[in-house]
């Protein structure tokens, strides 16, 4: 009687395992978060470093995509010759570029390099700051974002015979950083926390 | 000659079936251990994170590694248990000899290892399917989640070979301990010495760094066959009261 009881448990458990395996193979293998290879991570890091801190404002959308850099931009009309920049929740600097024309427009560009962790690139989920222009006050507000994902790691035996990605990269984290530019009309005066504001003149060469 | 061989095989078969039938509780123990392992893997979530002032990234890591570890612990305990007096008394049910007893033990170990590797490998599917149903594909990284049928077979074969490797070594040690308790000192000294030299590291590298399944199978057979043969030899040459 006891033996039969154990046999039933074994049978039920084995069936459960087989059903789980069957269900697993019926799962459509799409829409998963795609893991990067270590080569892709290396290439991304190189392209980010070369471009993000180079002449980034001059890159075309195609060049930005190729360099794995994301761009968000905003344009505001302004009818004042002074601009006050107000920061909230951030110590990220803003680079102010004076245009060589007075078009009464403020253009804001936010560039972000890859944010890689655990073989996943979170760059596209990383939101830029919230930018608002109220009269002559440009409000830049960052909100803290949280990303989470689930990663299965194979057991060491299966990994021994099948692993493609190096384990070293499972905990590899990389964020090339982000840059925020504010293009202002020629002759506009800028005020705000000077620790975070860098002013440049736009050049046409 | 032919008749003797046939008799031995039939006795081994009878002893094996009896051992299997009377020790189904061990399989139940393995199932309970694996269920605990699955729950342990799902609930004891390993997370790692990175972040800055503006973001934080959190990766939840799941693995069937604890289940594999539990299987190895279980097979070691089983290999020791097979040489206990209580278990050996089962052999007296049938008319046999020490050779048939050892061979039926090995067959039992092989059966148990097969079921343990089947359960270990498929437990990973339970975790994956459950997680997929809970959070959906958009929150799961494809790397590690996707297992091809070939990887499934390789996982099964690899786990089975490792279990047999562990079992054969432990079985040999437990036979030596049956022969004389003094072997406990010898085994302990051998383990301490090998851990202090590069021998143990080299053994781990010899098996752990082999990524070709065929080569690995050969390497395992090189160890398992002599270990079981030596166990049979030692057990055959033991005195009756031992």
Task: Write up what this structure looks like.
The complex is a heterodimer of chains A (205) and B (242). Chain A has 205 residues and is α/β, with parallel strands linked by helices. Chain A has four helices and 13 strands. Chain A has a five-stranded mixed β-sheet. Chain A has a four-stranded mixed β-sheet with strand order 7-8-2-12, with no helix packed on it. In chain A, strands 6-5-10 form a three-stranded antiparallel β-sheet, with no helix packed on it. Chain A is elongated and about 90 Å long. The mean pLDDT of chain A is 84. Chain B is globular, with a radius of gyration of 21 Å. Helices cover 76% and strands 6% of the residues of chain B. In chain B, strands 1-2 form a two-stranded antiparallel ribbon. Chains A and B meet through helix 1, strand 9 and helix 4 of A and helix 2, strand 1, strand 2, helix 3 and helix 5 of B.
Please describe the structure with a list of short key phrases separated by commas or semicolons:
heterodimer, A: 205 residues, alpha/beta, 4-stranded mixed sheet, 4 helices, B: 242 residues, mainly alpha, two-stranded antiparallel ribbon
- Total beta strands of chain A: 13
Overall helicity of chain B:
over 70%
Mind summarizing the main beta sheet of chain B? 2 strands, antiparallel
Classification by helices and strands of chain A: alpha/beta
Question: How far is the N terminus from the C terminus of chain B?
Answer: 29 Å
Question: What's the end-to-end separation of chain A, in Å?
Answer: 91 Å
**What is the global morphology of chain B?**
globular
Strand % of chain A is 25-35%
Radius of gyration of chain A: 26 Å
Helix content of chain A: 25-40%
Largest sheet of chain A: 5 strands, mixed
Largest Cβ-defined interface: A-B, 59 and 68 residues
> Count of DSSP helices of chain B?
10
Rg of chain B, please? 21 Å
**Element string of chain A (H = helix, E = strand):** HHHEEEEEEEEEHEEEE
What is the spatial order of strands in the main beta sheet of chain A?
A: 1-4-11-3-13
Number of helices of chain A: 4
What structural category characterises the helix and strand content of chain B?
A: mainly alpha
Beta percentage of chain B is: 5-15%
DSSP strand tally of chain B: 2
Quaternary organisation: heterodimer
């Amino acid at each position: 009687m006891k033996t039969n009881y154990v046999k039933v448990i074994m049978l039920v458990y084995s069936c459960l395992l087989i059903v789980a395996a069957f269900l697993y193979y019926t799962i459509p293998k799409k829409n998963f978060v795609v893991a990067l290879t270590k080569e892709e991570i290396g290439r991304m890091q190189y392209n980010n470093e070369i471009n993000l801190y180079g002449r980034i404002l001059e890159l075309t959308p195609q060049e930005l995509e190729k360099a794995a850099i994301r761009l968000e931009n905003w344009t505001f009309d302004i009818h004042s010759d002074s601009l006050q920049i107000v920061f909230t929740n951030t110590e990220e600097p803003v680079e102010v570029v004076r245009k060589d024309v007075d078009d009464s427009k403020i253009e804001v560009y936010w560039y972000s390099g890859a944010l890689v962790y655990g073989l996943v690139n979170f760059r596209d989920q990383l939101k830029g700051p919230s930018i608002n222009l109220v009269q002559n006050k440009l409000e830049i507000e960052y909100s803290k974002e949280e990303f989470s994902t689930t990663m299965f790691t194979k057991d060491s035996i299966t990994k021994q015979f099948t692993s493609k990605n190096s384990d070293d990269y499972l905990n590899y984290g990389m964020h090339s950083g982000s840059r925020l530019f504010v293009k202002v009309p020629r002759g506009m005066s800028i005020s705000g926390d000077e620790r975070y504001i860098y002013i440049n003149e736009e050049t046409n060469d | 000659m032919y008749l003797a061989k046939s008799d031995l095989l039939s006795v081994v078969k009878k002893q094996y079936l009896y051992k299997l039938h009377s020790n189904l509780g061990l399989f139940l123990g393995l199932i309970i251990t694996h269920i605990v392992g699955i729950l342990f893997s799902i609930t004891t979530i390993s997370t790692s994170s990175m972040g800055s002032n503006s973001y934080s990234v959190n990766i939840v890591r799941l693995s069937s590694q604890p289940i594999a570890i539990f299987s190895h612990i279980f097979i070691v305990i089983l290999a020791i248990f097979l040489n206990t007096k209580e278990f050996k008394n089962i052999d007296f049910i049938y008319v046999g000899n020490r050779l048939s007893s050892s061979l039926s033990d090995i067959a039992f170990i092989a059966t148990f290892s097969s079921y343990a590797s089947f359960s270990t490998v498929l437990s990973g599917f339970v975790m994956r399917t459950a997680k997929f149903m809970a959070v959906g594909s958009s929150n799961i990284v494809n790397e590690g989640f996707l297992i091809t049928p070939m990887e499934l077979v390789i996982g099964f074969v690899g786990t089975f070979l490792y279990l047999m490797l562990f079992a054969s070594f432990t079985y040999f040690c437990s036979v030596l301990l049956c022969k004389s308790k003094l072997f406990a000192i010898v085994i302990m000294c051998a383990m301490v010495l090998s851990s202090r030299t590069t021998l143990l590291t080299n053994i781990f590298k010899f098996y752990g760094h082999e990524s070709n399944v065929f080569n690995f199978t050969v390497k395992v057979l090189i160890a398992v066959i002599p270990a079981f043969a030596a166990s049979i030899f030692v057990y055959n040459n033991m005195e009756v009261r031992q």
